[in-house]
Amino acid sequence: MNRVEKLSLLSEMIAFAKSDDAIKKVEYNFLKGVALQLSISVEDFNYLVEHPVNYTHLKSHSERIVQFHRLVLLMNIGSGKTQKEIVKLYNFGLRMGLSNESITRVLHLMEGFPDNIVPVDLLIDIFKVQYN
Q1: Domain that holds residue 114
Q2: pLDDT at residue 114 above 60?
Q3: pLDDT tens digits for 9-27?
Q4: In angstroms, rounded to a whole number, what is the distance separating the alpha carbons of residues 30 and 64?
Q5: CB 3.0 to 4.6 Å from 93: which of 86, 103, 106, 110, for a disulfide?
Q6: pLDDT per position as a tens digit, 71-102
């Protein structure tokens, strides 16, 4: 991924975290960790919190799956998911070009796992089936 794509990913995640108007401390720390994994400085990350960048569509299907997984994790680290967050996650997935069936399946299966987090291997398998 190039820098523009990385900043776009972070900006999208920040927007998702702000869906309830404020970023909780646990969400902020999670997002900052993602920024560091993407080799984005804390200063650049903090700038993104106040100045979002435009969405850049990821070319790689696997990168889109990873980003969707990050959004699932982000949704579940807060004080619990709301219907508004689920709808927003669903719409983010569609905008990324992920299949409706895969997104729906992941959201349905979340309920059966601890902390509502579908294991990475299963999540990848769900999207692979729909992609092929």
Answers
A1: 3-131
A2: yes
A3: 999 999 888 877 788 899 9
A4: 19
A5: 103
A6: 888 888 866 678 888 898 899 999 988 999 99
Site of tokens 């080799």:
39
What is the C-alpha separation between 29 and 46, in angstroms, rounded? 11
Buried b (16+ CB within 10 A) or exposed e, 106-128: bbeebeeeeebebeeeebeebbe
Cβ-Cβ contacts under 8 Å for 53 (sequence gap 6 or more): 4, 7, 8, 11
Nearest to residue 72, comparing CAs of 52, 45, 92?
Answer: 92
Number of domains in the chain: 1
Instruction: Compute the distance between CA of residue 36 and CA of residue 70 in angstroms, rounded to an integer.
Output: 14
User: How far does CA 118 lie from the centroid of its chain?
Assistant: 13
DSSP output for 66-89: HHHHHHHHHHHHSS---HHHHHHH
Residue with tokens 């569509």: 57
